[in-house]
Amino acid sequence: MQDHKITKILVSEEEIRAIVQRLGSEITSHYHGIEKELMVVGLLRGSFIFMADLVRQIKVPMVVDFMTLSSYGDGTVSSGDIKVVMDLDSSIEDRDVLLVEDIVDTGRTFSKVIRMLRNRNPRSLKICTFLNKPETRQVDIQINFCGVDIPNEFAVGYGLDYAQGYRNLPYVGVLQP
Ligand code: PRP
Question: What's the predicted TM-score (pTM) here?
Answer without folding.
Answer: 0.93
